[in-house]
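One record is given unchanged without comment:
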Amino acid sequence: MSLANQARRKGFTLVELLVVIAIIGTLVALLLPAVQSARESARRNTCLNNMKQLQLALQQYDTSLRKLPGYINSIEDVTSQKDGNGQYEKARRASWVVMTFPYIEQTALYDQWSKNWPNTTPVQLGAQNFASIEGLICPSDPPEDPLAPSLSYVANAGQSFVDTTRSSGIPTENVANGVFFDLSKNLNVEGQSDSREAQPASQCSMDYVSANDGTSKTLMLSENIHALFWSYAPYGTYPDASNADVADGKHHFGFTWHNRISDDTDTADIDETKTTRINGAADLLPPSVMVSSQSGAPGSETAFTPYYGYPNSAHPSGVNAAFCDGHIIFLTENIDPQIYAQLMTSNYKRSSYVNQASNIADRKLPQPSDSDY
């Protein structure tokens, strides 16, 4: 063989190169789903750990105070003057998340919320007190703004205020319907009145849950990609969640249930058969284009519309959910609506849940077993 022929045989032919590229491409295609699955598994484990820490923080809160916080609360400056209604003039609305700050290594931030009372009107905190906290964000649900006070987790707030089976008039709270309730009663707090401030506070505790449905059968926390922030934002910082515009609602920091899940009479463009179920509101507007409107009218789905009140996650086919006793499960989006509602009520003997198909009240229905979910 000549030297010229030997030199020509040192390289790959075009066909050989294409074969190698095809083999590499096939291997990558085979490995990619496994890599993606491993990444999602890691993100889900982080999410589970976040929920576990929040659940433990709420247990510690309950152990210290013998009660759980509301989904929204009033933090008051007890050194300030009282108004004609006997309420402290300086106060702030704070979500259940804020109330857990001392138990999730955020004591310094909680001190700013509970002890920082500037002599200004309104009594507002600066943007530096609305920090992004890693443990409040599911890695599968990354925030659009990494500096925003984003939130991926919501608390069991019971029956939705827009459930059409409720009686007309001002919606009332029933402690048997959930775990977290409206405890923001100070009318001096900025924001629209929700017309419930004069009602007696409904407050739950672990003892109440344990004595009734049981902590292992009552949901405490879930995911929701529409939760937006862990508190109402300060004026001008995040206009879509302005403290001045928004009346308190269960769906802001909580998740809810409905007696009726197939009634599409409230608004013309919202299909309740989709939105009143787990992962049902995925087709609604993302936070970046939400507007601060309370009407809920056609074309105005907002950051605070009640139809964002069901659990929702970026995980395929369901959400992570924590029970009051601390165990966490993956709640499938195909769960029976009756089972879902029953897992949310804290006292089936007194809850407002009624199976609309059979017209049977919760107290007469068989209670869920582990195999049901």
